Amino acid sequence: MPNPREVSYDTVADVALHYARPPVAPYGSRGRQFTFFSTRTLRDTFAAALDELADVCPHGRPEVLTSAGTFVSKPGQHGKGQAIDVDAIFWSDRTFVTDFYLTDTRFYLAVESVFRRHFGLVLNYLYNNAHHDHLHMDLGVPVGFSTGSRSRVLYVQASLTHVHDRPVLIDGIWGNQTAGAIDDVLSDLGLTGSITNKNTWLAYLDRTARLGFGQAETEADPTPADLLDQLFQVIDGLDLATEHDHKIQGALDLFVAHPDTMTWLDTFREGS
Question: How far is 153 from 156, CA to CA, in rounded Å?
Answer without folding.
Answer: 5
